[in-house]
Amino acid sequence: MSAPPLKLALLGCGSVGSQVVRLLREQADDLTARVGAPIELVGVAVRRPELQRDAEVPAELLTTDAAGLVARDDVDLVIEVIGGIEPSRALILAALENGASVVTANKALLAEDGSTLFAAAEKAGRDLYFEAAVAGAIPILRPLRESLAGDRVTRVLGIVNGTTNFILDKMDTLGSGFAEVLEEAQALGYAEADPTADVEGYDAAAKAAILASLAFHTRVTAADVYREGISEVSAADVASAREMGCVVKLLAICELREGPDGPAVSARVHPAMIPRSHPLASVREAFNAVFVESEAAGQLMFYGPGAGGAPTASAVLGDLVTVARNRLNDVRGAGESAYADLDVLPMGETETRYHVAIDVDDRAGVLAQVAQTFAAHQVSIQTVRQEGHGDDAQLVVVSHRAADSALAATVDTLRKLDFVHDVSSVMRVEGDF
Amino acid sequence: MSAPPLKLALLGCGSVGSQVVRLLREQADDLTARVGAPIELVGVAVRRPELQRDAEVPAELLTTDAAGLVARDDVDLVIEVIGGIEPSRALILAALENGASVVTANKALLAEDGSTLFAAAEKAGRDLYFEAAVAGAIPILRPLRESLAGDRVTRVLGIVNGTTNFILDKMDTLGSGFAEVLEEAQALGYAEADPTADVEGYDAAAKAAILASLAFHTRVTAADVYREGISEVSAADVASAREMGCVVKLLAICELREGPDGPAVSARVHPAMIPRSHPLASVREAFNAVFVESEAAGQLMFYGPGAGGAPTASAVLGDLVTVARNRLNDVRGAGESAYADLDVLPMGETETRYHVAIDVDDRAGVLAQVAQTFAAHQVSIQTVRQEGHGDDAQLVVVSHRAADSALAATVDTLRKLDFVHDVSSVMRVEGDF
């Protein structure tokens, strides 16, 4: 209790940063007891100090000189909640070089260039923690990295983007189309004016890269992650999922698979149908959840708020307590672990399952020809359902697992058949049913 | 990688211990990479070495001399999976005194006398980790202790006993009575021949004590935990819950409440009705889940298998990797934290809500008199439902929150009213609805 204060610099003071300031103040006594020394906020770097902020940040702490703040020789700890690649990367690297331990929520930076940051932390002998970068307040990185360190993780399925889950949940419950629900989400503040990063899966892909890296002890970057968003998901897709007892979710999927040269990683983000009985199916609105399968532990799920100022600040402060304790005891926590160094499979070589709805002529022989098309691409069929007749005749096919490229080629061939009017829904399927 | 091996002694080789041996062998390379040194199993203490075991434990490692094994001067790490109070306590204390770090799954011992163990670990400067003691493979202690260290946990609601959840789930889905389902659970291996520890809530109470201690930084023992089991839960209770859109679960409830002298802890285990919309309501069969509410993070849930050899071994090995890394770096992880030292409220002073079904005479004025009885005990009513008539007339009352003693006294008074034939169901209610 009598240890001198650890000095903290905060980079960024938006919705997360201002909640960090609030919690530092309100929980000061508890934090001191848990760390073993007080944490003293010595500076807050912001771009526009004139802005009104949620927390009462003492005006004398505000500075526009972030580089000068991290270069101070009395700073022990740095929290980075600016986001984006630059200046965050330069500031984090400078902080580490200057001997500070760093906590960041910056998923984009970690997914693009984590290895530079990890190397700098290693070289400096300091901690770099980032629980808040994936799934907000939900403790998922620490369980993956530490709790499951004696087990073999085989699969991570995550709903890691609240905006897209909100949209897909509304499409499912209201039967509405994508564009209509997106507008509602924007009005409610669940989607940004430019929703691209969320809706097209960029945000989820960055998180998938981080999850895959930790789960499989291999460097996976955002560029390694196959990515498809939800803007092409139609009300018909959602209705078709419902018919099958499924729901459509945007999933971040990280799997350990058998590749051509031994075990390999598949990392991808795309909409998928999952059975309503799957624990992820009941994740509603803007909540996040991460489902983990491992060899010994079996199936685990972690559920909670995936975004928001206070939840994200909770994750940042949990990391801060750990790195502050480490700092006080002059030790480092477990750093990056990339020893497995597995190959990342291209999407085409990843095995998936497809759900395909095909509008066809209502005449004899059609089903046989469709089945033959699948067989010609080495894709075996699990179920076929015939629906409607006359102009409304439709075949709904669910395949067994096959190479994604073979499934895509099958759909291309189907589109060219003369009795096929339209392939009206194509979507991957995850989970057993 | 070139560090010399860390030497491990295993105490107990039942369903968990034999899975630990298997994983140590199968994951040896991964464990070495994650720890930074190989882990070498140097002895396995068992009572009956002649038993056939799941894993092929090399015969030369088996010994009946557990005390001699932990006294060896080359042992760095000890795993205790014997269970029970003695000889486990003596062995763990001897191991710590001898300079070994310890991983245990022993909930009963931790809940009865954790403080002795924590003090010994502190004195020895070694780690004592115990993730496997609560909710099997589900990482819950580490998130509570570390991930949420910068937040204020206000409430933990856990389904932490698989046997009772299996029984209550079957009573709900099949409409069967307790005795009938217990027999089925025993036949399937979900319940022991003597089911007392599970069915009467002793197992859950030990886990509640551990959860409350970690969540509120206060020493809570099993004796501090109010406990009611499920043997009195009737098919009528379950049906009554269903009528209200609820399901009956055995909950371990740990709350931060305002006590007479400031913040205090309430820790209790009892059956409760929760709304079907609550995330815990969908926890089926023998699965476990822990629902955590905290000031900043909001609502989190952790879900997975709560028992079984392999899942529990996964949690043990996760801890083993951490304590082995700490050992290698000659540091200690976060030890016990009891700085808050809050009072534990007696059950009578804890605020709860009751659901009460009362068989009554079907005549005017009865509802008024029942309402008056609640009012006389300072208990306010949320809803009253009248059902049936004539001999089947029933009032179903759900109260607002009130002191548990006031609610219990209300029920006592109700039983004595001349128009009351029977109070046919009394159960506490948790969750908003």
TrEMBL record, chains A, B:
Pathway: Amino-acid biosynthesis; L-threonine biosynthesis; L-threonine from L-aspartate: step 3/5; Amino-acid biosynthesis; L-methionine biosynthesis via de novo pathway; L-homoserine from L-aspartate: step 3/3. CDD domains: ACT_HSDH-Hom. Pfam families: ACT, Homoserine_dh, NAD_binding_3. Keywords: Amino-acid biosynthesis, Metal-binding, Methionine biosynthesis, NAD, NADP, Oxidoreductase, Sodium, Threonine biosynthesis. L-homoserine binds at residue 192. It catalyses: L-homoserine + NAD(+) = L-aspartate 4-semialdehyde + NADH + H(+); L-homoserine + NADP(+) = L-aspartate 4-semialdehyde + NADPH + H(+). The active site is at residue 207. NADP(+) binds at residues 11-18. InterPro entries: ACT-like_dom_sf (IPR045865), ACT_dom (IPR002912), Asp/hSer_DH_NAD-bd (IPR005106), HDH (IPR016204), HDH_cat (IPR001342), HDH_CS (IPR019811), NAD(P)-bd_dom_sf (IPR036291). Coiled coil: none annotated. One of its GO terms (molecular function) is homoserine dehydrogenase activity. Its cofactor is a metal cation. Residues 355-428 form the ACT domain. It is an enzyme of class 1 (oxidoreductase). GO terms for biological process: methionine biosynthetic process; threonine biosynthetic process. Catalyzes the conversion of L-aspartate-beta-semialdehyde (L-Asa) to L-homoserine (L-Hse), the third step in the biosynthesis of threonine and methionine from aspartate. This is Homoserine dehydrogenase. It comes from Nocardioides iriomotensis.
